[in-house]
Design goal:
347 residues, alpha/beta, 8-stranded mixed beta sheet, two-stranded antiparallel ribbon, 12 helices
């Protein structure tokens, strides 16, 4: 029944005029996240991969422990530039404000207290959870909340830091948003981004899909159960998440628009094939305690890295620090994986 209702909803959006399709996606966004208190939970196999590869090979060389520490590190650096001034930050699409509350708590633990983080989201229920968490952590005075559809954000002041944590892939009006970010950033401000940059709707590009289909045909059936849709998938289904929601609505446009509008101080791209096997949909089929399961993930990761460095595959996620002015020596994973090289141009 659940899959039938999903299909009906997708068809309704497909045939609706644009204004109604937008409202239906908006309604689903409100309903889905209204009752979702944990939006970042991931299967154990994801953490196996992250702890073995993502952290040591990609994040740690730049002093970053994990994506959440990424925000703390660069906010702290921004604080050091102007130690006497009040640090103003805004987080677009903050959801439950959990990362922002922990960021505030970490800053306080370092003795930094002259700051405020404005959290913007369309969902009042999620912002309310954020307020409660801020109170529980003792950082309520550092967290401000604003309810707004960030597709139509109307900022009224400037910020030292703009944060986008896994939210840009939900936004239709990216050009307008990036224009506003440039307007509101102080001259030496930073735009901190952790987001998905793969194909729209989180579809797989043809070159990746061919490799995944080959891998899928070689996998035992026990690895092919779709936990999100509660069904077995003997053949891999290249599902377009954007047909029924804002999920991945313009993911493939994020990186090229950032390249066109900003300058990169840091760019750490990663992951393509691997996310099919370690994310919520199929990741629970793999047990990091089982040697065979770890070996499958190790092999897929190696194929991913080979494909991304050759240019055959393009990364689908990134951490990035962006500025309004040119950067003399951008920090990159290596000289080859530049933002421009990692853009996947649609056929």
């Amino acid at each position: 029944m659940r899959n039938f209702l999903r299909a009906v909803w997708s068809q309704l959006i497909r045939i609706a005029p644009p204004w109604l399709a937008y409202r239906l996606r908006y309604l689903k966004e409100l309903l889905v996240f209204r009752y979702q208190s944990n939006v970042h939970d991931l299967p154990p196999i994801f953490h196996y991969w992250s702890n073995r590869y993502l952290g040591p090979q990609i994040f740690n060389p730049y002093g970053i422990r994990d994506p959440e520490h990424f925000f703390f590190k660069f906010v702290s650096e921004q604080r050091e530039r102007h130690p006497a001034a009040r640090l103003t930050m805004v987080s677009i699409g903050s959801g439950n404000c959990d990362m922002e509350c922990r960021l505030a708590s970490a800053l306080r633990a370092e003795g930094i207290d002259n700051f405020v983080i404005e959290c913007i989201d369309i969902n009042q229920a999620m912002l309310d959870r954020g307020i409660k968490l801020a109170e529980a952590l003792g950082v309520a005075s550092y967290i401000a909340t604003t309810i707004s559809d960030f597709n139509n954000w109307q900022p009224v002041k400037q910020y030292d830091v703009v944060i986008a944590n896994q939210c840009l892939h939900h936004i239709i009006e990216l050009e307008d948003l990036f224009s506003k970010v440039k307007q509101v950033l102080t001259d030496d401000g930073r735009f901190l981004v952790s987001d998905m940059i793969g194909r729209n709707g989180h579809l797989r590009w043809p070159e990746a899909l061919g490799i995944i289909n080959t891998m899928w045909s070689q996998l035992p059936e026990k690895y092919k159960y779709n936990h999100m849709r509660q069904r077995q998938e003997p053949q891999f289904i290249n599902h377009d998440c954007s047909t029924s929601s804002f999920e991945g609505i313009r993911a493939q446009d994020i990186l090229p628009l950032l390249v066109a509008n900003f300058h990169f101080e840091l760019f750490l791209p990663f992951g393509n094939l691997i996310f099919v096997f370690i994310d919520r949909t199929f990741g629970y089929n793999f047990n990091p305690e089982v040697v065979e399961d770890r070996q499958i993930i190790d092999k897929i990761h190696a194929r991913d890295e080979e494909g991304m460095h050759s240019g055959e595959l393009k990364p689908t996620q990134m951490l990035a620090v962006l500025c309004k002015t040119p950067v003399a020596q951008p920090r990159l994973r290596n000289a080859r994986l530049t933002p421009e090289f990692c853009v996947r141009v649609p056929s």
